[in-house]
Fold this protein.
Amino acid sequence: MDFQWSEKEEAFREEIRDFLRAELPEDWSQGAGEDEEGGRQEFEREFAQKLGKKGWLACGWPEEYGGRGWGVFQQMLFSEEMWLAKAPRKYMGAGISQVGPPLILFGTEEQKKQHLGPIARGEVRWCQLFSEPDAGSDLFALKTTAEDRGDYFLVNGQKIWTSGGHEAQWGILLARTDPDLPRHKGISYFLLDLSLPGISFSPIINMVGVHSFNSFFFDNVQVPRSALVGGLNEGAKVTTATLNSERSGIGATIPALQLFTELVDFCKSEGTNGYNPLKANPAIRHRIAELAIRLQVARDLSYRVGWMQSTGHNPSAEASIVRVFATELTQKVTELGMEILGLWGQLMKDSEINVMRGKVSRLYLGQRAITIGAGTSEIQRTGIAIRGLGLPRS
């Protein structure tokens, strides 16, 4: 792998930075608009559509589908700069990272024309409807059914842990279409219009007090046959492509890098009320240095996956390696943040004397789930052992 970015890639990175400096409020990185729910949502929608007009949201996609045909690395560079600037990313979520790539591979031309353009223009938001109360890491144990009725499928069941589903208009749905086939061969993959009759949801509030997850319920939902992707009972292959896309990229690494940068800046400052963590505990320097090494490794692992994708390889085990290393590293960074801030680390952003806008406490709680979503670390390690090392299944 060549670790030197090309002149074109460096120019693109600088172009993104110039755009973000011009379009984001000066105090955006300090939490501007966090408590203005309606105004922030409108700003994020308009911001995403500006990116869409430039062809940046899906810059790695072919031009005929709303991208710029630049490839995987440019998409990673764009995502990295967006993350580092803390720019709004809701319209970059499931649509860009999970829906588009498998749809380009397995979708019909009609499906591509209908869905890829609106995603690339920042006009629609998607969610993932995979996990169920009894089928998370063991995804192919799902029980939601889609009964073939000819022109449509009749869907009944429940999904859970659906991130952002309450703000989405469409979802990617896995459902069992043949109960007599082996588990992984009897499921199908659908593009689901969430406005269809019979769909409802209830919120799940996380430990930070945020409504980010949902339970979805399907009661005799008639899903048109045109929503089927990849063929009847062929959902496993489309799902694998979706999960590999979700687990790869730079996104899993950046949350750790963001917080780490702020913690380093805090340690360089005078601290809070005269308390300087470095003066209080010089050993923290070694902890910071160790995490800096690991962050560089995580970044390089992410770039390697991007390079593999750009050369036509399927980074299945490699994507899992990135996921395990980066998510567990994020938890280590949040733990260090709590140690550095001491008792101040327990204060949330609504406290008048909070430190770093209460970010450390929010992330410490919020990132407990990061090693569970998209497949637990245990499942990822099993995949690395089997697919990456050729070890036998137990």
About this structure: Residues 284-310 form the longest helix (27 residues). The chain has twelve helices and eight strands. The beta strands are 126-129, 145-148, 152-159, 170-176, 187-193, 199-205, 211-224, 228-229.
